[in-house]
Structure formats: structure tokens, C-alpha cells
């Protein structure tokens, strides 16, 4: 059995290295390192894949969130509602832009933002909602879009962990995540389902006016060289990273399919154990593309299990151990921790197991048996 990796990028590369190497050599020969032709090619391919009008590449996922917010022309002090159980980048960019993050609780089955909690948090200062499609599972976008329309709010999807996932509306309409909000942001960090070999990101929108504004923002506010029409930033996707992403995009559905297959195998083995809650997968399994396979450990010691797995040479992760509402940088003394009962509980229980497209059935069986041995 191969050594178990949390994400096995080496084996993934081995299968596509001829395509990657050829594309990189073409960039090196052309010396078009920034915004070269391959960046535009990748942009066009991703627009076609998602069924979205505009993809604007940028330097990383955090930039994509910041730029998406900048494009909405919000004012200092405007409130933006987002999930308390998520990576820090969302609340980070809200705060950097002098907006006010309003954190709300999540659903215990999907780990995603709770629409009921969103509505309770809306005030006259609320201008936007940022749902995070956490761990690859789609948030309840239908209800979120209803709230946005009711209260005239922007929706910015954080699609960093769910690229390729499908959202199914109650009428049967199926749409890719990242195309549902007014604007969306994603990351191409190497460990993502569609990952570069360095940093990268992109913003998606179907709004022509927003797209034009965003294209200026990512390039120092320029539409014509040395003419700075708006305040912008420097956030561009390298051509070498575009080679990797353009190549991998062709295999994204296959990668996601293998992740789903591994997730089903994990769940089949683990689902009946009294100390384990396996992930919700949706009715058709297409709403979750398993950036992470995250279980909950109940009536036991999650941290002791982490140590047990590591001692058996099994990597694992705790995403995320501390709620955002009690992080030192973002703690608000006016916010009562009792507003986050689900988040406060699941941060003590969640553990993410190895998950990638190269995971073997032998490895999954070994991981599950190691978990069972902890409880014996």
C-alpha cells in the first residue's frame, strides 16, 4: 500500500505530467509569463465549463473575495453576513475593506450557513451575504437567493471549496455553484479540487457591468495603459499556473467523481458506528464534491483520535478548531457566543480524513480500521 497523503498531488501530477510539462515549456519559450495567451484560454474554458458569462482570473482566492466585494461599492460600516464556521479569509477581507462582518451559525448536517440565522441577523445596514460552500457541499442557495431578493442584498458565493459542484433547485433546475450569486470567488490553491502549482484565484459573474469593473480592479484600476480610472489592486494569474489549471480542468469532473466514490466508500464503512456522524451528501450526491471528507466524533475525544491516526501514519485535519466569533482579531464583545450553538459544538467534533482523487480502496479500509481500533 502506498503511503497515505492528505492530498496526493505527486501521483496526480504523474498522470498528466506530459501535458503539464509541454504547456509550461511553451510558456517558457514564449516568455509570456503574466496574462499570456494561456490565461485567456483557461478563462474561456472555465466560462464554458461553468456556464457563466465572465471569469476574471486573479492572483489567489483571498484576492478574489476582496475584489468581488470591492466591485459592489459598499460603504464603510455596511454589514456583510457570513458563516461563523469557515476559513478566516472571508471575514478578513470584509474587515480590510472597513465593512462590518456579521457572523451567523451553520446547519449541523451540511456545516453551511443557516438561512434562518441569516434572516434574523439582517438589519437596515445589511448589504450582502457571503455563503461559503464548505468542504465541497453546496449551501442552501435557493433560500439564500429568496432572502437576498426580499431584502435587496448582494450575494457573493465563496466557491473556493466547491468548484464543479451542482446545485439543484426545487423545480429541478441544475446550476453549477459559483454562478448563482451576483458575483462569486474561488481559489486555485494547490490542494483544491481544481488546484494550481502555486497561488491562483478567479472571480465569476453574469453581470456585464460588474465584470468590466472587476477587470479594472485586478489591474491597478487600468483599462488603458497608465490610465487609472478606478482604485484597483495588482492581482493577476501567472501563465504557468494557467497551464496547470487549463490542463486539470479537462479532468475536473473525473477528479470529483473519484472523490465522491471514495466518500461513498468511507460512508459505507463508517456510517453505523455510534461515535461517528458521516457527511450529508444530498439526494443525488452531486451537491457535494468532497474537497474534504469531514466526519463528526461524538461522545469521545476527537483530539485523541487525531493523535491515534497520526501514530498510525494517517494524516488528518481539523477544519476548523476555533469559531471565527472568538478569534482574537475578530472578537466582538457585543456578540453573545450563545448565538452559535452548532458551531460551538462541531468545532470540538470535526475531523477531516484523507481525500483526493488518487485514494485507493485499500487506503480507505486501512484508515477506517484504524479509526475503529481507537474506539475498541
What does this structure look like?
With 376 residues, the protein is of the alpha/beta class. The protein folds into two domains: 9-104 and 111-249, Type I PLP-dependent aspartate aminotransferase-like (Major domain) (Aspartate Aminotransferase, domain 2, 3-Layer(aba) Sandwich); 252-375, Alpha-Beta Complex (Aspartate Aminotransferase, domain 1). 38% of the residues lie in helices and 15% in strands. The protein contains twelve helices and 14 strands. It has helices at residues 9-30, 37-50, 61-70, 89-96, 115-121, 141-151, 208-217, 239-249, 252-270, 302-311, 341-346, 361-375; strands spanning 54-58, 79-83, 100-104, 126-130, 154-158, 166-168, 174-176, 183-187, 201-205, 222-224, 227-228, 276-277, 293-297, 350-353. Strands 1-9-8-5-4-2-3 form a seven-stranded mixed sheet, with helices on both faces. It has a three-stranded antiparallel sheet with strand order 12-13-14, with no helix packed on it. Helix 1 crosses helix 8.
